[in-house]
Prior knowledge:
With 660 residues, this protein is α/β, with parallel strands linked by helices. The strands form 4 sheets. The protein has a 6-stranded parallel β-sheet, sandwiched between helices. Helix 17 links the parallel strand 17 (527-532) and strand 18. Helix 4 (138-154) runs parallel beside helix 8 (281-307), helix 16 packs parallel to helix 17 (544-555) and helix 16 (504-522) packs across helix 20. The chain is globular, with a radius of gyration of 28 Å. The two termini are 25 Å apart. The model is unreliable at 195-207 (pLDDT under 50).
Amino acid sequence: MNKNLAFYVLFHANNEHGKKAYEAIYKLLCRDADHPFEDGLDIPVYLRMGDDNEYKEIKAIDPKASDKTYILLLIDDNMYCSEVWSEYVKQLISVRDANKGTFIINCVEQSKYALDFNKSLARDQFIRLNSYSLLENWQEFQIRLFDNLIRFIKLKDRIKKLKIFISHSKRDENKIGLLKAIEFRDYIRSKTKLDSFFDASDILDGENAQDQIKKNEEGVQSLIVILNSNTYSEREWCQKEVLFAKESKIPTIAVSLLDGEVRRSFPYISNIPFIRYDNNWGDILVLVLRTALDQYCQAEYLENLRQGLEKDKRESYAVLPFSPEAYSFVYKELEKNILYPEPPLTKDELNVVKTIAGTEKKFLTPMQLLAETINLAGRSIAVSVSEAPDSYNIGYGKAMIRDLTIELSRHLMIAGARMVYGGDLRSEGFTDLFRELSLQYKNYQSEVDREEYFFTNYFAWPIWLNLSNEHKLQFVNSRVKYKTVDPPEDYKGDPNKPIAPINSENNLMWAKSLRKMRIEMESHVDARIILGGRIQGFKGFMAGLAEEFIQSVRAGHPVFLLGGFGGVATMLADMLLGTIEVPSLVNVSRENKQYNEFYDYCKIKGVDMGYAELEKIVKAGGVDVLDNGLSREQNLTLLTSTDIIEIVGLILEGLRNKYN
C-alpha cells in the first residue's frame, strides 16, 4: 500500500451512483478483489458519506495520515442542497489551504449547479464529463483522473502539462505510422478535450524527441507511445527512441499497427504494455497513463518495502518498478539483488536473466520476499470476517474490507499457511470469495497436487444440507476442503431435513449447531484473525465473530483483532480498551426483534449464551488476552489501523514471533 498517498471519494448518502463509483475507483487505484494475484496500484482508497439526516457526522480527514491527500468530491444535486456537506467542504478547504501542495480537492460535476457549490473551489479543479454519470463516462474519467494523479504525485508544479511523445515511422508504404501519429495528436488536442493537459507539439519530429524529453525535467513530464508499424523496427531513429525510453525508465507503451509480414522486429520493444489499435485512442491514453501511474507507485511501494528490511539485507537490494529483462542490465541497480513488482518471472524468463546476472543473484517480488522471511508451513490460520453494517458510515466500504481479507489470505498462503473459515453459502459471501482466492492461488502455482488444499471451510448443520454437487465440485477443484459438522447431540429430528430459524425453539438448535461448529473448527487452527462482523441479524447465541473470539481465547490461540473497520471487531476492540462494556454489544444486538425474543427465551430456559464468559475475558487482561506475539503498543496500533500494509506486516510479525 502506498503510504505516500491517500485517496478519498466523497459523496452524499443519496447519490445513487456514489457507492458504485467508490467500488469502481477502489478497483482502479488499489486492487481488484476479483483478481487477487494481479498486482494493483496499491493506492489506498477511502470514502466519506453523509447527509442531513441519519449521517450528519461525517468523519474528518487527517492530512497527516499520509504524505499527500487527494480528495475526489462528487457534487450532485443532493450535495448541492446539503447544509452538512456545505460546512464539511468549507472545513476541507481550510485544511487544503493549510497544506498547500500536499492536499488537493478535485470535484466531479454531477449537477448543473455544481460549479456554484463553493466559490473557493476553482473551476479548474472540476472534472466535467460528457454527462453527469461518472460510470457512463468511465474512459474519459480515467484519463482525467490518471493525469491529475500523475501531476500531483510526480511534478513539483502541477500546472505543467504531461507530454505524450509519439514515436513512429514515416517510411511505411501506406504511411500508416505517420497518418496515425497525426490522428493521435489531433485526438489529444481536440476530440478528448485534453489539450490543456497534454502538450503534443513537435511530436512528429522524431529526430528531436530525445532532446525534447531531456528538457522536461529529465523525462519526468514525458510519456512515450510507440506506434509499431511494419517499418518501425528497421528505422534507426525509432530504435534510438526505444532504447532512450528504456534507459531513462520513461513509462512507455506500444500500439500495434502491424499488417501482414514483418521479417524482423526490434527485440527491445518488449517488457512494456502492448495494445492493438482498434479505432479507439481513448483506450490507448488510458493505458499509457495507467502505466505511468503504476510505474511511479511501484517505485515508491517497493522502496518502502526495501527500507523495512534489516540494514544488511536492505543494502543488498535495489528496486526496479517493472519486471527485469535482459536489457535491464544497463541499469546500475542490477549490480544488486532486485525487488520488482508482481507477478514473478516464469522459470524460463528467470533462467535467461540469471544467465546474464549470475545464478547467485536474487530477483524477488514482494510475496517471494515474504516467503523468505517467514515460514508458516503446517500452520492453520482462521479468518473470522463478515461485512460490517456500518463500514460505509465510518469510511471503509465493501471493496476495502474484501481487499484486506484477500491481502491477508494471499500473504499467509505465500508464507505456507493454510486458511480456515466457518462460512455459509450466501450469494457474494466470503465462502465464495475464499473459494475463488484458493482457485487463483492454485492457478498461480505451476503444479498443485490434487490432495493439497489451501482452505478448509467448515459448515454447520443445517447449512451444509444446501451443499449441492456443483458446490462440492467447485470446492475440490479450487483446493478447498469442506468439513461438515453434525447436529447438536440433543437434536431429536431428522438430521437430513433442514429446519428454518423461524421461532425461538428452532433458533436454539441453530445457535447450538453454530457453537458446535466453532468449537470443532477451533481445535484445528493455530491462530485467528478477526475483522468486521454483523452485530444484528445473526443466528447464533451472540454475534458470530464474538463467539469465535471467545473460543480462540479459551483455546489459548493467538488472536489478531482488527478494530478499525467497524462491526463486531470494533466493539471487541473497544471492550479491550475499556471504552465500552459487554452490555453495549448485547443491547445493540437486541435491537433486532427476532434476536430480542430469542434472548428472552434463552434467559427463561437458563441457557448460557456466552456473554458472561466474554465479560470475564475482557476484564481478565484487556489487550494482553490476545497473546499474539506483538507488544502492547503494536496491538494498540492493530486495534485501530486501517492501513492494509501496516496490518499485514503486524500480523506476519506476530506469527513470526510465535512460530518461527
